[in-house]
Design brief:
single chain, mainly beta, 4-stranded antiparallel β-sheet, 38% strand, globular
C-alpha cells in the first residue's frame, strides 16, 4: 500500500471506519457471526471486498492485518494464522479472529 492510501473497514457491509497506512482500528462487535472486509481508497484498482467470516465470542479480542492477497484484492488476515494468504479469498475458521 502507498502512503496516501486509506483502508475502509466494513462490518456486515457497513463502513465502520478508515485507517491510514500503519494505523490501527479498534471497535466492538456483538457476539455472533459477522462479515469483515476492507477496501483501499481513494482510487481502488479492484472494487471487490473478499469476505472474512468471523464467529465472535464474548470476551475475546480479535486482531486482523489488512494486506494484499496476491490477486489484487485487499483482505483482512488474522495474525494467529501461521502464514498469510497469497492467492484467492481466505476464509477464517470460526472463533479465530481478533478485532
Amino acid at each position: 500500500m502507498g502512503k496516501f492510501v486509506f483502508v475502509q473497514i466494513y462490518v456486515d457491509n457497513v463502513v465502520v471506519g478508515a485507517i491510514a497506512y500503519g494505523e490501527t482500528y479498534r471497535g466492538f462487535l456483538n457476539p455472533g457471526r459477522h462479515v469483515l472486509s476492507a477496501l483501499a481508497t481513494p482510487r481502488p484498482k479492484w472494487w471487490e471486498r473478499p469476505p472474512t467470516i468471523v464467529d465472535v465470542r464474548s470476551g475475546r479480542i480479535y486482531t486482523f492485518t489488512a494486506m494484499g492477497n496476491g490477486a489484487g484484492n485487499l483482505i483482512l488476515w488474522n495474525d494467529e494464522n501461521m502464514m498469510p494468504p497469497r492467492v484467492g479469498v481466505f476464509r477464517r475458521p470460526a472463533g479465530t479472529a481478533a478485532w
